């Protein structure tokens, strides 16, 4: 198969994929909750329809509406792909910031298409791969922001057990000694388990 024909086939696949992203749901979301939700019938698709939200940042003083008796406030910004939060016993908050580090080769059409879909949702940019610590200043509504751990590899899972902090990267699980009150971990960490990451199936 010559290169021009391959390019034509690839272009056709990408067009089908992007057209699938523009399809709208056939069932009103309001009908999909409650004791008798309406579910769409099963269908076969060459490319399944996808609804990809447009990524936008926090707009000025705008904020989500929450239930009566609750409040919501912005405590930090400039995070890079925050994925998980964990509150420590002393009230500090750890934020896992992670996206692909950009070192993985694109070897399949699926990876290429997934990258395009992520781009539409604002998740294409690389960055993060660290854990940030947030601490509320005493007697103030402001929060401090500290880089707690960095140079990680697409971290996601995070758990504190006793005085050990466990972090699941895409290629391994690491453990770090944790000392209450510190704002940055200087420990090298120990690999607890290896994870299969050849094609990033974490």
Structure description:
With 202 residues, this protein is an alpha+beta fold. The protein has one domain. Helix content is 16%, strand content 24%. The chain contains two helices and eight strands. The strands form two sheets. Strands 1-2-3-4 form a four-stranded antiparallel sheet, with no helix packed on it. It has a four-stranded antiparallel sheet with strand order 5-6-7-8, with no helix packed on it. A hairpin with a 5-residue loop joins strand 1 and strand 2. The longest helix is centred in the N-terminal third of the chain and has 19 residues.
Chain-wise SSE layout:
Elements: H1 3-21, E1 82-87, E2 93-98, H2 109-121, E3 128-136, E4 143-149, E5 157-161, E6 164-168, E7 172-177, E8 190-194
Antiparallel strand pairs: 1-2, 2-3, 3-4, 5-6, 6-7, 7-8
Radius of gyration: 21 Å
User: Mean pLDDT, nearest integer?
Assistant: 79
Question: Tally the helices: what do you get?
Answer: 2
Strand order of the largest sheet: 1-2-3-4
Strand content: 15-25%
Inertia-based shape? globular
**Helix- and strand-based class?**
alpha+beta
Distance between the termini: 34 Å
Unreliable spans:
12-18
Number of domains: 1
Order of helices and strands: HEEHEEEEEE
Q: What does the largest sheet look like? A: 4 strands, antiparallel
What is the number of E strands?
8
User: How much helical structure, as a percent, in the residues?
Assistant: 10-25%
